[in-house]
Amino acid sequence: MDDFNSETDSDYTSYWRDWFISSRGNEYFCEIDEEYLTDRFNLTGLNTEVQYYQHALDLVTDVFDFDCDDDMREAIEKSARHLYGLVHARYIVTTRGLAKMLEKFKKSDFGKCPRVLCEAQPLLPMGQSDVANTSPVKLYCARCEDLYNPKSSRHAIIDGAYFGTSFHNILFQVYPAMLPPKSQRRYEPRVFGFRVHAAASLARWQADEREKMKERLRVARIETGFEDEDEEDEDDLGEEDEEMELADAFESAVVQH
């Protein structure tokens, strides 16, 4: 515990969770309620996944009273951090845990989407596996529905299992009003204002495939989330078609010369 200034063992054990949450690199975590930590049902199965499980649990719950050398204490501290992370993944899908993570999400504590067209959409931490030591945490953008690596190297080494694969989806199911509208906006490469031919052809194909999928969803009466944007696109459709024709004509003229 390099960042924790302590003069006595009582100080060491009395504020472990406060120290853990306030330590640099742990900003993604929320504080787990003591009642949740002391309910053995919530810890089912973790004793087989955490070394020095009982000592680690005592440390996390502030009842640690074990005389040991520095090496042993360091090993127990490492196990305590791992135990807290595993319990954290279970806690954040509870009502209390979701509410705490929602507040952090509203304040953009997890960062904002680096994609320009997502307009600084707040991100959510998630794991690509529920098994510990499989992959590090990633950041999920609900607008473009893509994953990003954390900017900070301190965050990039956090185990993704400490957040799990379901948390971000459960949060938006419980709080549907927080789900941002989907966006079809994409970057379009241009040369002197004209779309690049190969990119324009690909864009047309993608647009056709998207429209076919939307039609299938409309027939199945499934909301796409793109309805409002579709109305705006219809107004610009004629202008885009004309622009496509001009782009093709421009490229033909360049090739002939």
From TrEMBL:
Transmembrane segments: none
Cross-referenced SMART domains: CK_II_beta
Regions of compositional bias (Acidic residues) in chain numbering: 225-241
Gene Ontology molecular-function annotations: kinase activity; protein kinase regulator activity
Listed SUPFAM superfamilies: Casein kinase II beta subunit
Gene Ontology biological-process entries: regulation of transcription by RNA polymerase III
GO cellular component: cytoplasm; protein kinase CK2 complex; UTP-C complex
Region (Disordered): 222-241
Main function: Regulatory subunit of casein kinase II/CK2. As part of the kinase complex regulates the basal catalytic activity of the alpha subunit a constitutively active serine/threonine-protein kinase that phosphorylates a large number of substrates containing acidic residues C-terminal to the phosphorylated serine or threonine.
Subunit structure: Tetramer of two alpha and two beta subunits.
Family of this protein: Belongs to the casein kinase 2 subunit beta family.
Stated name of the protein: Casein kinase II subunit beta
Organism ancestry: Eukaryota, Fungi, Dikarya, Ascomycota, Pezizomycotina
